[in-house]
Specification:
The complex is a heterodimer of chains A (43) and B (279).
Chain A: H1 3-28, H2 36-41
Chain B: H1 23-26, H2 31-41, H3 44-71, H4 85-103, H5 112-127, H6 143-166, H7 170-192, H8 196-221, H9 228-254, H10 257-273
Helix pairs in contact in B: 2-3, 3-4, 4-5, 6-7, 6-8, 7-8, 7-9, 8-9, 8-10, 9-10
Classes of the chains: A mainly alpha (43), B mainly alpha (279).
Chain lengths: 43, 279
């Protein structure tokens, strides 16, 4: 595989892993009781 | 009876494919249902986090698109400008991912930097940062000067194009168009590597200006006093200019400074002989 393609593939996988994970998790956690900022501030 | 006259095949110029950075619109799509679910549940916090997250990714995608478009406009639109859209977009994606991993996804603060750095690295590998930062530190000519020189050269090309429009000779028109195409490629090359401007300075001054004077001169005179002798001289000059432009492009690519100067001297002498340059 050419280095440029490999680099692009790795970049794509990294973006997929980080952005998708965070977005999906954020969608699942979208509830007041789980909001970390509120629990952090109320400590 | 059907018309069987063959159609002339005209190849359309191929447009360069510019990546649009669509990935940044698509990957965070789960944030939209996230915001909607939060809205249905009356969870203002969830709505704000998810909606702001998606908005920031969209903003980063727009910046990235601007950066990628800028990269595909190599000449005067690129040199001398200090916009850094791609780097800015990468930093925004990293910041948004880190913030969302903490505020939205509820990860612990220890893992948050890993998400941010992962996204930043992904952006770098996939799209890269802005090219301008790769300019050599010993670059002797100011960026603004390089941009001005290229802009000046493009004005000369436009003047040649205008003069070409006044010349009613298909052969000459085609030759001049070829010369213009080579000149554009040379300017592209200079814009890609501004250090080339040092070597191409004489080309921009002597060759390009010479070509303009020759073309404008012929455009002015051939309608009033067209003669076979004038046509022959003009044809020969155009041949020389085209040849020298091709050599110039080649030398520029090969970084051969000495040969280039010799070639320029030859054309300079030729133009002086034709009375187009002051001795």
């Amino acid at each position: 595989m050419p280095p440029k393609t490999l680099r692009k593939l790795l970049g794509f996988l990294l973006l997929l892993a980080t952005i998708t994970t965070v977005s999906c998790q954020s969608m699942l956690e979208a509830r007041v009781e789980n909001a970390p900022l509120l629990s952090f501030l109320s400590r | 009876m059907t018309d069987t006259k063959p159609k002339i095949f005209v190849r359309k110029p191929r447009k360069p494919r510019i990546p649009k950075g669509l990935l940044l619109y698509l990957l965070p799509l789960p944030l939209i249902p996230g915001a909607l679910i939060s809205l249905i549940r009356g969870d203002l916090y969830g709505v704000i986090v998810n909606a702001c997250g998606y908005f920031l990714y969209c903003l980063a995608a727009r910046w990235l698109q601007l950066g990628l478009e800028e990269e595909h406009k190599p000449r005067r639109k690129f040199i001398g400008k200090k916009t850094k859209f791609k780097t800015r977009a990468a930093l925004l994606v990293a910041g948004t991912t880190a913030a969302l991993s903490w505020l939205g996804a509820g990860y612990s603060l220890w893992i948050v930097p890993a998400f941010g750095l992962g996204a930043l690295w992904g952006m770098y590998l996939n799209y890269g940062f802005d090219i301008r930062s790769r300019l050599p530190k010993d670059f002797g000519i100011q960026d603004a000067e390089a941009a001005a020189a290229i802009e000046e050269a493009e004005t000369i090309l436009e003047q040649i194009e205008t003069a070409n429009g006044q010349i009613q000779n298909r052969e000459f028109n085609e030759r001049i168009e070829r010369i213009l195409a080579i000149a554009q490629q040379i300017l592209d090359e200079i814009a890609r590597d501004p250090a080339d401007l040092r070597r191409a300075r004489k080309f921009l001054k002597v060759y390009l200006d010479g070509a303009r004077k020759v073309t404008e001169g012929y455009a002015r005179t051939h309608l009033q006093a067209g003669s076979p002798q004038l046509e022959d001289n003009f044809r020969q000059l155009l041949e020389t200019i085209e040849q020298v432009f091709q050599q110039q492009q080649q030398k520029l690519l090969e970084n051969e400074l000495f040969d280039l100067d010799v070639q320029i001297e030859v054309l300079q002498t030729r133009l002086k002989q034709e009375g187009l340059l002051k001795p």
